[in-house]
Amino acid sequence: MGPSGNGPLAGVRVVELAGIGPGPFAAMLLADLGADIVRVDRPGGSGLSIDPAYDITNRNKRSVLLDLKSPDGPAAVLDMVDRADVLIEGYRPGVAERLGVGPDDCLARNPRLVYGRMTGWGQAGPLAERAGHDVGYIAITGALGMIGRADEPPVVPANLLGDYAGGSLYLVIGVLAALQHVRGGGTGQVVDAAIVDGTAHLTSMIHGMVAAGGWRDRRGANLLDGGCPFYGTYETSDGGHMAVGALEQRFYDEFVRLLGIADEAPARKDFERWGELRALVAARFRTRTREEWTAVFEDSDACVAPVLSLSEAPHHPHLAARGTFVDHGGITQPAPAPRFSVTPGAVHRPPAQPGADTAEVARDWDLPHLTGRAAQAPQEDR
Questions:
Q1: Which of 17, 111, 137, 308 is the one with CA 20 to 30 A from 158?
Q2: Strand 36-41 relative to strand 13-17, pairing
Q3: In what side-by-side order are the strands of the sheet with 13-17?
Q4: What is the distance between the terminal CA atoms of the chain, rounded to a whole angstrom?
Q5: What is the 3-state secondary structure (H, E, C) of the chain?
Q6: How far is CA 197 from CA 90, 124, 125, 136, 192, in A?
Q7: Using one digit for the tens of pLDDT, what is the confidence trace for 19-63?
């Protein structure tokens, strides 16, 4: 099965040099939007324990297997670059250059290429050469320090905030902007997407609130960080949780009415009694189960929702009605987003298996020598 032709990026060709984390997710998003993604996998794999058949970040892609440390490996990539619009890599600074597939080499072959670089620390700066992971990137930007209760250590938000929000999404934005520049008659260029830059950028509104005196620079003390008793989570009688976001007065009024505390709750703007209000709300939520409270609030504007697990989320009536999750190849997974009225994206291929599509790519990209240069997949990957 070749590229789908669906989505607003149909016809855009992308070479993805295999990596882990935010790079593959960014390429998946481009693939969901219709781009033809060819992932260049390395012999032996990435070192992660996940079975490639379940790595959803490689859906809607095709894979060729090349050893970039072999004499023919870089030449094969450069042949692909000749026919590509975009290249994405997530190596440490200088690695792609040493392999012979850095920006200078690629742009010399294709001056209209958008060369997307995904790193944690960026291409320059004192930490650029250091190893790192999501938790460290979001730590130094101030974002991690905002998350959690005031009297407890910061809470790690999986790798969603740094890798994917501050990393992948900013790389995609940069690639699309640079691609538009090329389509408008400009030249190709390098997109330096650093997780620290993107994550810092995500905190822009908070920095403005700090400057205006509307946000205290400490955890669990503000309107949106759990410090407010009507914006946070509460435990139910069965050990579940409900999420409350009743910020506006009219939503708050409905919240306390349905919760059954309207007559005894202290004034919401009496900050000195927020502790009392929180205790009252918490005690009331503990009197019923999550399912019971869901039924109480589901047809209201009180801005209250059940906290669902990953396995529960696809079955929520609203998400089910919208098709927010899809089943493909036996895997329940998030559907492509956002949605387009004329050029909708779709999940049309399962996760790419390393090296499985070499002959197909050689045909579709008119690269007859690719099959000869491709490395052999390790026996266990066949």
A1: 17
A2: parallel
A3: 61-65, 36-41, 13-17, 86-89, 114-119, 189-194
A4: 18
A5: CCCCCCCCCCCCEEEEECCCCHHHHHHHHHHHCCCEEEEEECCCCCCCCCCHHHCHHHCCEEEEECCCCCCCHHHHHHHHHHCCCEEEECCCCCHHHHHCCCHHHHHHHCCCCEEEEEECCCCCCCCCCCCCCHHHHHHHCCCHHHCCCCCCCCCCCCCHHHHHHHHHHHHHHHHHHHHHHHHCCCCCEEEEEEHHHHHHHHCHHHHHHHHCCCCCCCCCCCCCCCCCCCEEEEECCCCCEEEEECCCHHHHHHHHHHHCCCCCCCCCCCHHHHHHHHHHHHHHHCCCCHHHHHHHHCCCCCCEEECCCCCCHHHCHHHHHHCCEEEECCEEEECCCCCCCCCCCCCCCCCCCCCCCHHHHHHHCCCCCHHHHCCCCCHHHC
A6: 15, 12, 12, 13, 10
A7: 999 999 999 999 999 999 999 999 877 656 688 999 999 999 999
Nearest residue to 62 via CA among 72, 71, 52, 70: 52
Please report, as a single letter, which amino acid is at residue 218.
R
Q: Phi and psi dihedrals of 234, rounded to 5?
A: -140, 145
In DSSP terms, 36 is beta-bridged to 13
Average pLDDT value for residue range 365-369: 94
Calpha distance 355→338 (Å, rounded): 30
Separation between Cα atoms, residue 193 and residue 159, nearest integer Å: 16
Residues with active-site annotation: 133, 163
Confirm if 120 and 48 have CB atoms less than 8 A apart: no
pLDDT digits (tens, 9 = 90+) for 219-248: 999 999 999 999 999 999 999 999 999 999
